[in-house]
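Action item from last week, closing it out:
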Amino acid sequence: MMVRKNSRTLLALSFGVALIIAGLGHAAAPAAAAVEERPGVPNDPRWSQQWNLAANPGVGIDVREAWRYGCGKGTVLAVVDSGIIAHPEFEGRILPGYDFISNSRIANDGDGRDPDPTDPGDWVSKEDVESGSFDEDCKESPSDWHGTHVAGIALAAADNGVGIAGIAPLAELLPVRVMGKCGGTDRDLIDGMRWAAGLEVSGAPVNENPADVINLSLGGEGSCSGSLQSAVDEITALGVMIVASVGNEAKDASLYSPANCFGPATVGALTASGTLATYSNFGNFVDVGAPGGDTGAQIISTVDRGSTTAVAEFRIDPTGIARATLIRSSCTSTFSRCTVVERRAVDIDASGFVSVTWIPSRGTWSWQLQLADTNDHEAATSPRARFRVR
């Protein structure tokens, strides 16, 4: 069965996951911690647009009240999805993940399974559609950075003066990549779920940071297969919670897997007025509804502006940094060899951000930031941001 991303119900799903994480963080805390005072309004600049987190009866989830009980500290959330891109909202909280996509064409990163869960983009070109290499339902589309979007809703940093606030801003993120161009497969999903929970998967290293909660913002039409149900049973027997989206087809959720497996907590989507979203699946297989948004009131999260590749954005500690040079290199398809083609002086803003505007051209590229301290000595070099443009 092909697995598809649930790009709307994922919003509701992430709210359900994040509330569970907040509760786990509180449950894991010493009894003396008890309930704290209601925190103030966070300084994230787009907080005012996060209607879904407000204290609106029947609409928002009143996340500031939830924060009195916990913010997810000490909890690991596995986002089993399309992978992740570097983002300041997750800084210092991304655990070593894995890429479980077996098919290199679906993976879109030049190889099959590997220890790098970075999302290289999942755009589908006209040539892809006409090649016959993908499912007939696969349509031309830009990259959506789905895994990053899901992760932001659940655990973006709060009160850091950047972007948005997540619901469990102290939880740790375990990125597990199982979806690429046109979705993914049951086999890769099952292996990704089992690995996320700390179970052994042939050919993959041991996961040293097993998840407390596994987020599945994905699904496909069909019954829950025996192998998928077995994986769910193994995982839940360990005490790991699986939360699954019910889907976006406006049909009975019993028709879609993994929501129709026995074991996951399933989440449907509600609008800004508290009613069932027109796109959300429904029925007895829906355990809970949470804000998912609609055309008139969407939910904002961490995204990328690139249609085929991530736009380079770096964040550094600006203390003592006098200047920075961006190094752009042209690389072989496997990134085994890169040749510098451009060095560009760039500005560092007061928050430590360096944003670069560049019109992508065909090729395999890497960007790296070279810093100099106040004495004009080389201070550090950032990790490579690598990508492909077709």
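Closing note: The first strand starts at residue 2 and ends at 5.
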